[in-house]
């Protein structure tokens, strides 16, 4: 099987790693890929989706997997399907679940899916009136895509009003903030749950927990994610059952009823409050860095999961996961998430310890290959050190042992990934 992966981050690198160990996969292309994906397959400098579809047709590519949200919202799936190509991901219509927070919140309300009390508006006055009815902290969200940064948790009503004003004026997020959602803050613990869907059927992956804040103890600014682990013991059978009955099934039924059946990854941002799951948000792709810890837990061939989902045949698939744990620690550049950093050469120590060699790996993200052939840290989140183990502690220890083998100027990472599970 020939596979094309669209995207350039650690998520796409991790999907590439899973495909590489699949005996069915003959060749992998990445569009555009990063400085390390060329070790797994071939990088393509084709940005136009129609040109990319023509390339896929010409090369006889059997399956395309879309990593990031922007191409999905832009309709890359529709373009490939028009050409009769098999592609994993939702249509542009279905991708509104992530592309518009207003669409998503109204969809949840229509189908009685549990979520926080909210208002959607383009009026500062209406937003301000609703803010007065809420207790702080208060959540303010830009409607459109903001690369994971369009959500502000305001510690006071005045700061919530400032956030709303900044978004609606266009100062904060441009056009993406021309309409906003203001909602009550849910106090509980957050989970990332992923369902791979084919329109009707679905497979739920082991639940993960992401660490959004820059600093230990969940302090500092929000980031794209500083680490993750899976499966999390914070989910029990009761929560899985409630998500199944109250969230995933009504979502797939509702999307089909509205003429936009959902195929791809439904990423469910869950807040558990006193044992009850509430939906914070939907995304329509794998989370990053959650994907980096989920892919190594996939026991079944990756091509089977993605291909059967893309062709509406998940009911035929027997998808299995290893009964193990994975912990991923993000290593970020010096100035992340405030501004870009100077490129820095990445030096990897040779690993002599067999146990570490066999139970850990790096998923590369913000890296480029220099003219000298060396790998350089050029992005904000540079790479993810992933450790595997029979317990969360063992996986965590291996991930941090690997962190100690990676060197570049200004490197930073959290030292407490998976702390909530280890405190249990």
UniProtKB/TrEMBL annotation:
Annotated keywords: ATP-binding, Ligase, Manganese, Metal-binding, Nucleotide-binding, Purine biosynthesis
Entry's EC annotation: 6.3.4.13
One Pfam family linked to the record: GARS_C
Database matches in PANTHER family: PHOSPHORIBOSYLAMINE--GLYCINE LIGASE, PHOSPHORIBOSYLAMINE--GLYCINE LIGASE, CHLOROPLASTIC
UniProt enzyme class: ligase
Gene: purD
One of the GO biological process terms: 'de novo' IMP biosynthetic process
Lineage: Bacteria, Pseudomonadati, Campylobacterota, Epsilonproteobacteria, Campylobacterales
Domain ATP-grasp: 105-311
Protein's recorded name: Phosphoribosylamine--glycine ligase
UniProt catalytic activity: 5-phospho-beta-D-ribosylamine + glycine + ATP = N(1)-(5-phospho-beta-D-ribosyl)glycinamide + ADP + phosphate + H(+)
Family designation: Belongs to the GARS family.
Cofactor: Mn(2+); Mg(2+)
């Amino acid at each position: 099987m020939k596979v094309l992966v669209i995207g350039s981050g650690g998520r796409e690198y991790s999907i590439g790693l899973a495909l590489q160990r699949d005996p069915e996969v003959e060749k992998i292309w990445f569009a555009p890929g990063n400085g390390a994906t060329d070790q797994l397959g071939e990088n393509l400098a084709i940005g136009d989706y129609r040109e990319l579809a023509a390339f896929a047709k010409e090369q006889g590519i059997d399956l395309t997997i879309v990593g990031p949200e922007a191409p999905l919202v832009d309709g890359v799936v529709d373009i490939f399907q028009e050409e009769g190509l098999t592609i994993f991901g939702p249509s542009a219509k279905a991708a509104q679940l992530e592309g518009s927070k207003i669409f998503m919140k109204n969809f949840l309300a229509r189908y009685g899916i549990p979520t926080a009390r909210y208002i959607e508006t383009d009026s500062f006055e209406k937003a301000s009136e609703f803010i007065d009815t809420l207790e702080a902290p208060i959540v303010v969200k830009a409607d459109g895509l903001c690369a994971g940064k369009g959500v502000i948790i305001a510690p006071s009503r005045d700061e919530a009003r400032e956030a709303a004003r900044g978004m609606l004026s266009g100062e904060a997020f441009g056009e993406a903030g021309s309409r906003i959602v203001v909602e009550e803050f849910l106090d509980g613990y957050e989970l990332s749950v992923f369902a791979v869907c084919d329109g009707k059927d679905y497979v739920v992956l082991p639940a993960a927990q992401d660490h959004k804040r820059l600093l230990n103890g969940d302090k500092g600014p929000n980031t794209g994610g500083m680490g993750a682990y899976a499966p999390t013991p914070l989910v029990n059978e009761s929560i899985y059952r409630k998500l199944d009955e109250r969230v995933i099934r009504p979502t797939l039924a509702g999307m089909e009823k509205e003429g936009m059946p959902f195929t791809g990854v439904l990423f469910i941002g869950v807040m558990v409050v006193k044992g009850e799951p509430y939906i914070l948000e939907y995304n329509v792709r794998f989370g990053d860095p959650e994907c980096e810890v989920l892919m190594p837990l996939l026991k079944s061939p990756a091509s089977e999961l993605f291909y059967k989902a893309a062709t509406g045949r998940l009911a035929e698939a027997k998808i299995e996961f290893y009964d193990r744990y994975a912990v991923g620690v993000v290593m970020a550049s010096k100035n992340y998430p405030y501004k870009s950093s100077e490129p820095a050469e990445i030096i990897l120590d040779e690993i002599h310890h067999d146990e570490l060699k066999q139970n850990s790996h790096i998923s590369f993200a913000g890296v480029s290959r220099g003219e000298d052939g060396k790998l350089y840290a050029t992005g904000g989140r540079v790479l993810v050190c992933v450790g595997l183990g029979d317990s969360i502690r063992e996986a965590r220890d291996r991930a941090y042992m690997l962190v100690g083998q990676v060197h570049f100027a200004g490197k930073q990472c959290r030292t407490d990934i998976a702390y909530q599970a280890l405190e249990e």
